[in-house]
Design a protein that fits this description.
It is built from 18 helices and twelve strands. It is an alpha/beta fold. The strands form two sheets. Strands 1-2-3-4-5-7-9-12 form an eight-stranded mixed beta sheet, with helices on both faces. Helix 2 packs parallel to helix 4, helix 3 crosses helix 17 and helix 13 runs antiparallel to helix 14.
Length: 458
């Protein structure tokens, strides 16, 4: 059996859904320009012995959007009822390039169009996602390439214009994040193995799935305020629902260990790293039959067998929980109020408060204020799709040439002097009008998501 993604693949792999419960917004991912895009990936599904099918995509540059730098690939192997997707860019810690985003979209779309999802004996019952190289699941989005596109490319950036790398990357990344979140959890759950670094975009393509597996090697962070950006890929949705911990992670970019993410509820399971290979093998050999009506229950049994429920007791985050809840309380509506609360604790000798104040003073004042406003708005929105629409507006505001994003990436990833010159340089100089301008509607370039209607294939 073979299937090839057509020329307008990014507009076709997602299907319109009338289901309000799925919160699907009807529009093409690449509006107006889809017909101009050459084939960017080829997906072939072939039958092999032992009901194994191979799905592999090799990315090709897309004509309308030229993001510089090596692209990386995403591959997938189906064994039995498990489709095992591997993010394969180990030299860059599997950081997501636009090519990898499109490659992942091609895998999902190719499998869906070929009818790979379902309840037949050889259907896909679980999506397993891992990172190659042994060091990282995914170290985030390839913001260096986005930076270079914005600094060196032509066109007016910051308006969501199709064909500009500063727009296409976020539009297509958010579309894949949304599509993954719509996988039916009782039939085809997503399992992501966080055995290593999981930052930013890596969080986005996994945290909205049903199961996230941490190990002692897990290093989790949403570090965007340190590069003049904000926690995106649905950060305003899931972080705003974690109370004080979510606000703390969003503003500070604090790094969490495996026990920390399990304690915080970001990871659903904890498996010691020396058991991960055994866990994967057991999962890959699950005996699905037509009588197995749902993949979720069978997958959960394997997860529970390998899970160490005591992992949260080793969390360092737990020791700071009381201070986090007080200082980053949802009752604080401004960054200044949070700093005041930390200041009180610091004056009383709190090492946590003192360390956190130092960390916050290194972040972009604009990013801090926009992030907190985004979290408060996100908490009031009902769906991930609504939050992603808002985040796309924010992403484009941060692509404007006067944005702190370019200075932050220069400081951390280009010159690596770690001495950013933020503008404005203080919270006091960051006006309410400037913050609110990041949330302005993009008009015809608004993000209008299509989510794959997985139910039509199940």
């Amino acid at each position: 059996v073979s299937s090839t993604i057509p020329k307008n693949a990014m507009s076709l792999i997602f299907k319109r859904s009338s289901s309000s419960s799925a919160s699907v917004l009807a529009h093409h991912i690449l509006p107006h320009h889809a017909e101009k895009i050459p084939p960017f990936s080829e997906v072939k599904l072939r039958r092999f012995p032992a009901a194994t099918r191979i799905v592999r995509t090799m990315s090709r540059p897309s004509a309308p959007s030229a993001l510089p730098g090596p692209g990386g690939t995403t591959s997938a192997v189906q064994t039995g009822g498990i489709l095992h997707v591997t993010l394969d860019r180990p030299r860059a810690l599997n950081a997501l390039s636009l090519e990898m985003v499109r490659s992942l979209a091609g895998i999902l779309g190719g499998a869906g169009r070929a009818g790979a999802f379902g309840t037949a004996p050889d259907a896909v019952r679980c999506l397993l996602v891992s990172g190659a190289g042994g060091k990282a699941f995914c170290a985030g989005g390839d913001v260096r390439s986005v930076y270079e596109s914005g600094k060196g490319g032509s066109g007016v950036h910051g308006r969501g214009t199709v064909g500009l790398g500063t727009a296409d990357f976020f539009r297509e990344e958010y579309a894949v994040v949304h599509a993954l979140s719509l996988l039916p959890r009782d039939v085809c759950p997503q399992v992501s193995v966080w055995d290593g670094i999981v930052f930013g975009g890596g969080v986005g393509i996994s945290v909205h799935g049903q199961y996230r597996v941490a190990t002692e090697n897990t290093l989790f962070a949403m570090p965007e305020t340190g590069i003049g950006f904000f926690p995106d890929v649905g950060g305003t949705y899931f972080l705003s629902r974690l109370g004080g911990i979510g606000t703390y992670l969003a503003l500070t970019g604090a790094r969490l260990t495996g026990p920390d993410v399990f304690y915080a509820g970001l990871a659903t399971h904890y498996v010691p790293s020396h058991r991960v290979d055994s866990f994967r093998r057991r999962l890959l050999h699950l005996p699905f039959t037509e009588d197995t009506a749902a993949g979720g229950g069978a997958v959960a049994e394997v997860l529970d067998r390998y899970h160490d429920p005591s992992a949260g007791s080793a969390s360092r985050l737990a020791a700071d929980r009381e201070e986090i809840d007080v200082c980053f309380s949802e009752t604080h509506q401004t960054v200044e109020e949070i700093l005041d609360a930390l200041g009180v604790r610091a004056s009383e000798g709190s090492a946590f408060a003192q360390k956190t104040l130092v960390a916050l003073r290194t972040k972009s004042p604009t990013s801090l204020r926009v992030t907190l406003e985004g979290l408060r708005r996100g908490a009031a929105l009902d769906t991930l799709a609504e939050c992603l629409r808002m985040e796309y507006r924010l992403s484009q505001a941060f692509m404007r040439q006067d944005s702190d994003f370019y200075e932050g990436v220069r400081s951390v990833l280009v010159d690596k002097d770690h001495s950013p010159r933020w503008n404005p340089g203080s919270l006091e100089d960051t006006s309410d009008e400037y913050v609110l301008s990041h949330f302005e509607n993009l008009g015809e370039q608004e993000l209008e998501l299509l989510g794959w209607d997985w139910s039509s294939k199940l």
